[in-house]
Specification:
The complex is a heterodimer of chains A (about 280) and B (about 900). Chain A contains nine helices and 14 strands. With about 280 residues, chain A is α+β, with helices and mostly antiparallel strands. Among the domains of chain A are: about 45 residues; about 110 residues, CO dehydrogenase flavoprotein, C-terminal domain (Enolase-like, domain 1, 2-Layer Sandwich). Chain B is α+β, with helices and mostly antiparallel strands. Chain B has 23 helices and 32 strands. Chain B has a seven-stranded mixed β-sheet. In chain B, a hairpin with a 4-residue loop joins β22 and β23. In chain B, α12 packs across α13. The chains are: A alpha+beta (about 280), B alpha+beta (about 900). Chains A and B meet through α4 and α9 of A and β4, α5 and α23 of B.
Chain lengths: ~280, ~900
């Protein structure tokens, strides 16, 4: 049977260990990546595993099933802390892609321009992996190690993503920059998460995509943002030094120099919108 | 498909019926639907999720069938456009609205648009534009500019003529071929071959320039299961050369010994579908030796650069020149001068239908069914390549999913014909998106230097234009571009002292050919940009400056051609004045109040376009007949590539004959049954074939009237088996069954022939190159984000002189579609060989990138046009890009001289400003 569609996790993990099939979730990248003349012998479809579905809140925080689609995420009753993720969910490709593409597929595909990764980094997402040997949790920044590379072992399956329990005063925003309005690979994108308390930024996490092999947070800027008065937010923009962890390239979409300048601007906008989101105002757009 | 191992059986509900498919696990749902289940209404445009043409509903959610392995549909419910339009009330109502608005042009994206719209309307019966834009953002359309689609989905009332009316010239009627496009039954290039037909895969050069040699092909083939034939240049029975302009024909069907551009065909394999799908081109026995390539005109003109074609020294293919008066002297005497250098890159046509077709040998004749803009030119090319008499070749055009110039040249026709002849079996092929982009023609990259002078009161005094055009590896329509550009580079303005030279240079790039405007849009960028600079220098409003210099009746063009009537540029410019004044004031107010990074600007530009061939014969013939049963048959060979020739030609014919459009049946295009109506290019079908149709209708009418000696004023009406002729004084009934029928079965038959009157150009480009021009002026309102360098368009107003709008609805559709292509050229489109060979790296506008476009139809009748009509297809695009550039300049003070104006480029210019 070349199409494997298990309905229990243990069955899926056994198949994965024994047969090493091509993993399939939303399938927005698998077939376009196929070269002429290369056939896929065996597919393992994980989207009918109940454990991989669903978006729910538990005592430890939020859990998003690995096979949740972008449309699922956009429609889920997530708190304002997740605004960046929800906004990203509505900007991935277009509706055809959002209806099919999954959150775990986005991180496992590990494209530098994956729209899902910056919001998840800003949310300090943890990846839950399962194999027949057991389960492990790994921070997203440790999970994606390079362009199209992750620490997922061949017999492991991403089961879910976990986000810490939200606190009061959190908000987020996602700003994507592309050359057209939809179906566009980002030139750069920024996700911001903030927690505000008593007119100040208590905590901020900002991450940047499409400007390094793996999306990166901006820890030095985040540190400077902590404690800033909300009235000053509009003028806050990272310096080039804050972006030293980025390594943008020149490509058909934009130059590296442009990306750096654009990211500074996008950070400013994302931060301002995240603060609005945290204040319980608009959704950040 | 025979003998497949490793298959899986998938069961699902397709349009309400239970179906089962047994296929390999990685087969795309789009392929299963089309090839195993007969659902050819699902279209394939990219196989990458980039275009959305294949959109279907999976359990009610819209997805791309090309991304979905068929297995994933197991137990699900799939709906396609054909099923929806057949049974779903929402879809049926929407189908009617699509037709009322002309929201389907070529119709290739229509299944995707319909499916995505139905998904939306089921959720939100009365969506606003934001919701529509979001719902349709995943489906690309290259014809319509999206605005009519938005109107149809939003249930905006349509402005159609009375449904029961005659539908004559001037009436907005639905396209005559619209219902098939909405129902998904229209057959495009890949929709005619039976399942299991042998397929062809072309082996292409991976390098811009390479020497190559083959191994033992026959021995290799003998060892391959399922490969029926290998094709190379050795299989070409005639001369291995084609080209649209015979004196310049230089392109081989298969390269011989050396490949001149990346993507050039060197061989092809013909095999069963299963074999072709599993075929890895790397296993083909060919050895490549990459050679130094010249990929820019500068490199190709450098001393010692390798010659693309031995006879063309320094890789210069040809030059075009127009000289009148003394440009240098006038510039020297001018009160002010401005100058600039303007560049543009390759632009890809990006029709949503990749080239596709089917061929078979029938009774010793080769039949080629493929998408094309020029069936008779295809026939002429195939005659030479096949070394066969034309009587042994039949070209049967399929529906065409967009062309815009590139489907004027043959592409896969030789492979189809050779494959059918060598195997003796029917064959088919469809280009992948990448091979379509790699191997077919592009808009010429341009490098233009322009100097322009003016008197203090704003009259142009001297114009010197020097353009270098990258014509790629083969001639294609490069000579046309070189000739047209100097004639048009003046714009629709009076310039007494003028010199314009255009040179076409060969490079190791894909051939540059025809694309909506033949180089004129590139030239317009230079001129219209500098006109704004001039206006600033002399302190005259840009609209007034253009009006001051605009051509009028009796005023000579730069070719010395004087039109005594029909010059409509002033009316176009004046039509923009209300919007110009209001938008300029609004933009100034916005910018005065602006605290943030946004700035608004308004720009305008003009354009003109000579309809038909430049000083060359350009005839069309249309024929028609009336059968004994009273049916009227129009042999319509003017290719409808989405622009609406089937409808417009019929309207003109019916007007002349004096019967309602609804009584005319169409056959063709087919080189066996339709006379040559020329190519669909150069804005010529409404004008030239339209005149032929008018003459054909008039001749048929005269024959009928003569039969009963009725006067010219008589009214005709047709009923079963009879024609009634009523001239007021008397009423005659011609009983058709009693008349002798000709070989076509017609009791009355006629044909119309028209060739526009032109005169040759002399060595200085003086003469009468065209019998008529169309004129245009457009205004763009843009908002620039000065921090990011992004441009958002707010509004386009487009005034176009079409002489007479034969079908105003279709005119509006042409305008909006042309403007959208101009937006793409201005802001995002650049084809870079090897880097942007797909529709996610090469970006064309999506629905959210096209602002409201308000067409203003100007009707300055032309004495040569049918009922005064002029051509339209190119001047819809020509002013758009410069109008946008001028709007950007007005917004933020930056003169952009290189398109596309990507955010990075504009930001860099702003930083330097």
């Amino acid at each position: 049977m070349p199409y494997l569609v298990p309905t229990t996790l243990s069955e899926a993990l056994t198949l994965l260990r024994d047969r090493r099939p091509t993993l399939l979730a939303g399938c927005t990248d698998v077939l376009p990546g196929q070269r002429q003349g290369c056939r896929i012998a065996e597919l393992l479809d994980v989207t009918r595993l109940p454990e991989l579905r669903g978006i729910s809140q538990g005592p430890q925080g939020w859990r998003i099933g690995a096979a949740a689609t972008w449309a699922d995420i956009a429609a889920a009753p997530l708190p304002p802390a997740f605004d960046a993720l929800r906004q990203a969910a509505r900007e991935v490709g277009a509706i055809q892609i959002q209806n099919a593409g999954t959150i775990a597929g986005n991180i496992c595909n590990a494209s530098p321009a994956a729209d899902g990764v910056p919001p998840l980094l800003a949310l300090r997402a943890e990846v839950e992996l399962a194999s027949l040997a057991g389960r492990r949790h790994v921070a997203l920044e440790d999970f994606i190690t390079g362009v199209r590379r992750t620490t997922r072992a061949p017999d492991e399956l991403v089961v879910a993503l976990h986000m810490p329990r939200p606190l009061a005063g959190e908000g987020g925003a996602f700003v994507k920059l592309g050359t057209r309005s939809s179906l566009v690979i980002s030139i750069a994108m920024v996700a911001a998460f903030v927690r505000i308390a008593r007119d100040r930024i208590a905590e901020a996490r900002v991450s940047v995509g499409a400007c390094s092999p793996v999306a990166r947070r901006l820890p030095s800027w985040e540190a400077e943002l902590a404690g800033r008065n909300l009235d000053d937010v509009a003028g806050l923009k990272p310096d080039v030094a804050h972006l030293s962890g980025l390594s943008p390239i020149d490509d058909v979409r934009a130059s590296a120099a442009y990306r750096i300048e654009a990211v500074r601007e996008l950070c400013q906008r994302a931060l301002a919108r995240a603060v609005e989101s945290a204040k319980g105002g608009a959704d950040g757009r | 498909m025979a003998a497949e191992e490793n298959v899986e059986t998938t069961r699902f509900i397709l349009n309400g019926a239970a179906v089962a498919v047994t296929a390999p696990p990685d087969e795309r749902l789009s392929d299963s639907l089309r090839e195993r289940l007969g659902a050819r209404d699902v279209k394939i445009g990219c196989n990458a999720g980039d275009c959305g043409a294949c959109s279907v509903l999976l359990d009610g959610q819209v997805v791309c069938a090309c991304l979905t392995p068929t297995c994933k549909a197991d137990g699900r419910r799939i709906e396609t456009v054909a099923g929806l339009v057949a049974t779903d009330l929402v879809a049926q109502a929407l189908s009617g609205r699509f037709q009322d608005h002309g929201a389907a042009q070529c119709g290739f994206c229509t299944p995707g648009m319909m499916v995505a719209s139905v998904a939306l309307l089921r959720q939100e019966p009365e969506p606003d534009e934001t919701a529509i834009t979001r719902a349709l953002g995943g489906v690309l359309c290259r014809c319509t500019g999206y605005r009519k689609i938005i109107d149809a989905v939003a249930s905006v009332p349509a402005a159609l003529a009375d449904v029961g009316g005659p539908g004559h010239a001037g009436a907005s009627i639905r396209r005559l071929d619209g219902a098939e496009k909405l129902a998904g039954t229209e057959a495009f290039g890949d929709d005619v071959a039976p399942p299991d037909t042998l397929e062809i895969l072309v082996i292409r050069s991976p390098f811009p320039r390479a020497a190559f040699h083959f191994g033992d092909l026959e021995a290799w083939r003998a060892g391959q299961m399922g490969i029926e034939a290998v094709l190379t240049a050795a299989d070409v029975p005639g001369r291995n050369v084609f080209g649209v302009i015979p004196p310049f024909a230089d392109q081989p069907a298969f390269a011989e010994g050396i490949a001149r551009f990346r993507g050039e065909a060197v061989a092809a394999v013909v095999g069963t579908p299963t074999t072709i799908r599993a075929f890895d081109p790397a296993c083909f026995p060919v050895t490549w030796q990459e050679l130094e390539a010249a990929e820019t005109p500068a490199a190709a003109e450098a001393t010692g650069a390798p010659l693309l074609h031995e006879a063309r020294a320094r890789n210069l293919m040809c030059k075009g020149l127009v000289v009148s008066g003394d440009a240098e002297a006038a510039l020297a005497m001018a009160d002010v001068t401005v100058e600039g250098r303007f560049t543009s890159g390759f632009v890809e046509h990006a029709y949503i239908e990749p080239e596709a077709g089917f061929a078979q040998v029938v009774d010793g004749r080769v039949e080629i069914h493929a998408c094309t803009q020029a069936p008779v030119m295809d026939l002429e090319s195939m005659e030479i390549l096949l070394g066969m008499d034309r009587s042994a070749i039949r070209i049967v055009p399929t529906a065409v999913g967009g062309g815009f110039g590139s489907k004027l040249d043959i592409s896969l026709q030789p492979y189809l014909a050779l494959g059918a002849m060598k195997t003796g079996r029917p064959v088919r092929m469809a280009y992948s998106r990448t091979e379509s982009m790699q191997s077919t023609t592009k808009r010429h990259p341009s490098d233009i230097r322009l100097r322009l002078g003016a008197t203090r009161d704003g009259r142009i005094s001297g114009c010197d234009f020097r353009g270098t055009f990258n014509t790629g590896a083969y001639a294609s329509w490069g000579p046309t571009v070189a000739n047209r550009v100097p004639v048009h580079a003046s714009g629709p303005y009076r310039i007494a002292d003028y010199r314009a030279e255009a040179r076409a240079i060969h490079t190791n790039c894909p051939p540059a050919g025809a694309f909506r405007g033949f180089g004129v849009p590139q030239a317009a960028i230079a001129l219209e940009s500098l006109l704004d600079d001039l206006a600033e220098k002399v302190g005259i409003d840009p609209l007034d400056l253009r009006l001051r210099n605009a051509l009028g009746n009796g005023v000579p063009t730069v070719c010395g051609q004087v039109f005594t009537q029909g010059v409509g540029i002033r009316a176009c410019l004046e039509a923009l004045r209300p919007a110009w004044e209001a938008e300029r004031a609004a933009a100034e107010a916005f910018n005065r109040a602006a605290a943030g990074q946004l700035r608004r600007g308004v720009g305008l530009a003009s354009g003109w376009y000579g309809c038909g061939n430049t000083s060359l014969p350009n005839p069309s013939t249309i024929k028609a007949g009336i059968r004994a049963d009273g049916s009227i048959v129009l042999h319509q060979g003017a290719m409808d590539i989405g622009q609406g020739a089937n409808t417009v030609i019929t309207q003109l014919f019916a007007t002349a004959l004096g019967v309602p459009v609804a009584q005319v049946g169409l056959i063709g295009a087919d080189t066996d049954v339709t006379p040559d109506a020329g190519k669909t290019s150069a804005s010529r079908q409404t004008f030239v074939s339209g005149n032929a149709a008018r003459l054909c209708g008039a001749a048929l009418r005269a024959k009928v009237l003569r039969a009963v000696n009725a006067s010219d004023q008589a009214a005709l009406s047709v009923e079963a088996g009879a024609i009634i002729v009523d001239d007021g004084a008397s009423r005659h009934r011609i009983s058709l069954g009693q008349l002798a029928a000709d070989g076509d079965g017609y009791v009355f038959a006629s044909s119309g022939h028209y060739d526009p009157p032109t005169k040759p150009l002399d060595e200085n480009g003086q003469g009468d190159p065209y019998a008529q021009f169309g004129y245009a002026a457009q205004l763009a309102v843009a908002e620039v984000d000065t921090s990011l360098g992004t441009v958002r368009l707010l509004r386009i107003v487009a005034a176009h002189d079409v002489g007479l709008a034969v079908n105003p609805l279709l005119v509006e559709g042409q305008i909006q579609g042309g403007v959208a292509q101009g937006i793409g050229m201005a802001l995002m489109e650049e084809y870079i060989p090897g880097r942007t060979e797909n529709l996610h790296d090469y970006l064309i506008p999506t629905v959210g990138d096209v602002p409201p476009i308000e067409p203003i139809i100007i009707e300055e009748p032309d004495a040569h046009g049918p009922y005064g009509a002029k051509g339209l297809g190119e001047h819809v695009l020509i002013p758009t890009t410069p109008a946008i550039l001028n709007a950007i300049r007005n917004a933020c003070g930056v003169r952009m001289t290189s398109v596309p104006v990507t955010p990075a480029k504009l930001a860099a210019a702003l930083a330097g400003a």
